[in-house]
């Protein structure tokens, strides 16, 4: 039997090239090596307010983007998290074995709670729900961008704690980061990770941005006061642009150095913009084809839910039995 891989994306905001390079591109590449489950984590998205109408549309858009990027629904299950009820149920069971101090230490919680005056308790509990997403499928491998590494470590800690309190129940998941593109930074501020919730129009390239918008955003990207690329002395903006090019083009370090050393920033940006626009063009074309059939995406989500529900139900029942909670025989 193949090992199982699990990962997810929130249907909040517009999917950007950071989500693509840190997650989706890698999923597509590895999907056949595993029994693959990819989730649209809508229960995560509502940890901050979402307009219901927009959220409904984003869930379908994100599913279509998974397909357009190359997730093969004949092989991989594409699942809307909220359609498999066990995610929320297991999250509660895991909440009860998670010391609250572990959650207050999460850097994403600290960043989000500092940025807002009042936040919902869901932001604090977010990593427990993420642990449930992973553990419910007894996933062996979880490919994510670097920003999710700490949450993955917490999921392992929670699994370990549950197993030691109640006996072996959960498989210990492994984190898998992509070699390049694990942390794409904002084009307008290369000190900050590219993020869907960042509002500035020059911050992120969205996967559905038309080529002229992609070019405009990349040509405006922040660099530094040097005139040309120097691999010896490189600011974060230039490093980010090179990393984006390398991750899209699958170039080696050697190829990158030979091609870009000494290149003026204007030319660098043009080449990055062309690489990104050309790489996204087939994805955008497939997206248009997929969304031309209005019922297709719903059918994919229904199939995904049906395929994974038996695994999820059996894990939740096992965890409940281990904890002594009443389960119907
Ligand atoms: N900048 C990034 N570089 C590389 N990988 C990234 N990921 C996110 N941003 C980058 C990876 O994308 C996957 C899905 O992320 P998510 O939507 O579940 O949540 P996130 O990590 O919080 O993504 P955003 O874009 O920052 O969204 P908001 O602003 O809504 O919080 C994950 O594998 C993540 O590592």
Largest sheet: 3 strands, parallel
Task: Say what the CATH topology of the largest domain is.
Answer: Rossmann fold
Radius of gyration (CA) equals 21 Å
Number of strands: 5
Integer count of domains: 2
What is the spatial order of strands in the main beta sheet?
Answer: 1-2-3
Query: What is the string of helix and strand elements?
Result: EHEHHEHHHHEHEHHHHH
Query: Which ligands accompany this protein?
Result: adenosine-5'-tetraphosphate
Low-confidence stretches: none
What share of the residues does DSSP label as strand, in percent? 5-15%
Mean pLDDT: 95
- The CATH H-level superfamily of the largest domain is HUPs
CATH architecture of the largest domain: 3-Layer(aba) Sandwich
- How would you classify the helix and strand content by structural class? mainly alpha
Distance between the termini: 28 Å
The helix tally amounts to: 13
Helix content: 40-55%
CATH class of the largest domain: Alpha Beta
Described by the principal axes of the CA atoms, the overall outline is globular
Q: What do these coordinates show?
A:
This protein has 329 residues and is mainly alpha-helical. The chain folds into 2 domains: 4-177 and 294-323, HUPs (Rossmann fold), CATH 3.40.50; 211-289, Tyrosyl-Transfer RNA Synthetase (Orthogonal Bundle). The protein is built from 13 helices and 5 strands. The strands form 2 sheets. The protein has a 3-stranded parallel sheet with strand order 1-2-3. Strands 4-5 form a two-stranded parallel ribbon. Strand 1 (4-9), helix 1 and strand 2 (35-40) form a beta-alpha-beta unit. The chain is globular and about 70 Å long. The chain binds adenosine-5'-tetraphosphate.
């Amino acid at each position: 039997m193949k090992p199982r891989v699990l990962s997810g994306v929130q249907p909040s905001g517009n999917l950007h090239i950071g989500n693509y390079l840190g997650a989706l591109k890698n999923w597509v590449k590895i999907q056949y090596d595993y029994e693959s489950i990819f989730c649209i984590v809508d229960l995560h998205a509502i940890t901050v307010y979402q307009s219901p109408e927009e959220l409904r549309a984003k869930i379908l858009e994100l599913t279509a983007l998974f397909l357009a990027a190359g997730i093969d629904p004949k092989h991989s299950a594409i699942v809307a998290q909220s359609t498999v009820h066990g995610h929320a149920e297991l999250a509660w069971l895991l909440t009860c074995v998670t010391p609250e101090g572990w959650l207050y230490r999460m850097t994403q919680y600290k960043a989000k709670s500092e940025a807002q005056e009042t936040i919902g308790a869901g932001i604090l509990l977010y990593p427990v729900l993420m642990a449930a997403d992973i553990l419910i499928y007894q996933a062996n491998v979880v490919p994510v961008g670097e920003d999710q590494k700490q949450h993955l470590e917490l999921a392992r800690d929670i699994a370990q704690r549950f197993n030691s309190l109640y006996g072996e129940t959960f498989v210990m998941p492994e984190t898998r980061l992509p070699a390049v593109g694990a942390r794409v930074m904002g084009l307008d501020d290369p000190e900050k990770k590219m993020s869907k919730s960042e509002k500035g129009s020059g911050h992120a390239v969205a996967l559905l941005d038309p080529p002229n918008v992609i070019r405009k955003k990349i040509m405006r990207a922040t660099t530094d006061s040097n005139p040309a690329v120097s691999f010896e002395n490189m600011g974060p903006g230039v490093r980010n642009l090179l990393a984006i090019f390398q991750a899209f083009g699958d170039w080696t370090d050697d190829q990158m150095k030979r091609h870009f050393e000494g290149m003026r920033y204007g030319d660098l940006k043009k080449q990055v913009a062309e690489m990104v626009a050309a790489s996204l063009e087939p994805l955008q074309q497939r997206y248009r084809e997929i969304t031309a059939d209005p019922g297709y995406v719903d059918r994919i989500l229904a199939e995904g839910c049906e395929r994974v529900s038996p695994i999820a139900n059996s894990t939740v029942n096992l965890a409940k039995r281990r904890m002594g909670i009443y389960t119907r025989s």
